[in-house]
Every structure is written in structure tokens, then in C-alpha cells.
């Protein structure tokens, strides 16, 4: 590996140490359906977001709730302490398109219609409000 590439990799690793996130990959639902759920909690305080997800009727909400709990646990692990009430919030969350499985469905007159079974990847970042205030 060249020096420039090595330096940028080291910078990325250092920046990663101060980020608290969780990823959920290859979720078997369409990205559009997942974005509805993710848009509900973007920028919210963590405990409020957990409440919103718990009482949402969407199937994707249960998966995002589990992911949010994982991100909170990652924050607690890196900081070696429990998160206080109102301390954490969902700073960034986005949904990317995953692999699309292509299938055929029988159709009239010997034809076949294509079915696209979509999947997605969700990345959720949490951050504490106190660190944000110190930077500004």
C-alpha cells in the first residue's frame, strides 16, 4: 500500500473511533418501505425514537428498533458508561439499496413476468448532545 493511501486509511480509522453507529445489511424489504420508517426517527432523541418505533405498525420498524438499540450499545461500549436520559440522539441515518433478486412469475399465453425482490442496507449513527455543543 502506498504512503498516501496508508495515511488516508489511518485518518479514516481515527475518525471511526469517535463515530458511534450500527449497520443492518441485506434486509429483505424494499428501500422505499424502509425509508418511510427511517424518516420518522431522523434527528430524534433516542428514547423518543424507540417509543415511536415500538408503536409503529410497519414491519420494518421492529428491525430499525433493534438496530437503534445496537447503536446505543456501541456508544456505551466505546464510552465505557451508560447513556443518560436525553443524552443521545439519532444524528444520521440512511438507507442504501442492496442486492436485487430477479425471479420469473408465470403469465398468460406462455409469457413470464419479471419480479424484483429488493433488499436494503441501513446505517444508523447516534451522537451525544454534549459533544455537539462543545464543537460549536
Structure notes:
The structure is a single chain. The protein has 136 residues and is of the alpha+beta class. The chain has a single domain (21-135), classed as Ribosomal Protein L22, Chain A (Alpha-Beta Complex), CATH 3.90.470. It contains five helices and five strands, in the order αβαααββββα. It has helices spanning 3-17, 31-41, 46-54, 59-79, 129-135, and strands spanning 20-27, 88-97, 101-106, 112-117, 120-128. The protein has a three-stranded antiparallel sheet. Helix 3 (46-54) runs antiparallel to helix 4 (59-79). The chain is flat. 21% of the residues are buried.
Tertiary shape: flat
Give the total of beta strands. Answer: 5
Strand content: 25-35%
What's the CATH C level?
Answer: Alpha Beta
Helix share bin? 40-55%
Low-confidence stretches: none
Q: What is the fold-level CATH name, i.e. the topology?
A: Ribosomal Protein L22, Chain A
Sequence-ordered SSE layout with sheet pairings:
Elements: H1 3-17, E1 20-27, H2 31-41, H3 46-54, H4 59-79, E2 88-97, E3 101-106, E4 112-117, E5 120-128, H5 129-135
Helix pairs in contact: 3-4
Amino acid at each position: 500500500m502506498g504512503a498516501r493511501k496508508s495515511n488516508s486509511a489511518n485518518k479514516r480509522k481515527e475518525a471511526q473511533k469517535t463515530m458511534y453507529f450500527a449497520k443492518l445489511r441485506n434486509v429483505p424489504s424494499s428501500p422505499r418501505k424502509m425509508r418511510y420508517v427511517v424518516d420518522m426517527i431522523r434527528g430524534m432523541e433516542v428514547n423518543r425514537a424507540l417509543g415511536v418505533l415500538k408503536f409503529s405498525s410497519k414491519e420494518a420498524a421492529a428491525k430499525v428498533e433493534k438496530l437503534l438499540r445496537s447503536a446505543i450499545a456501541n456508544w456505551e461500549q466505546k464510552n465505557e458508561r451508560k447513556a443518560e436520559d436525553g443524552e443521545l440522539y439519532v444524528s444520521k441515518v440512511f438507507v442504501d439499496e442492496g442486492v436485487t433478486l430477479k425471479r420469473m412469475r408465470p403469465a398468460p399465453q406462455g409469457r413470464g413476468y419479471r419480479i424484483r425482490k429488493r433488499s436494503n442496507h441501513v446505517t444508523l449513527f447516534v451522537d451525544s448532545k454534549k459533544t455537539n455543543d462543545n464543537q460549536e
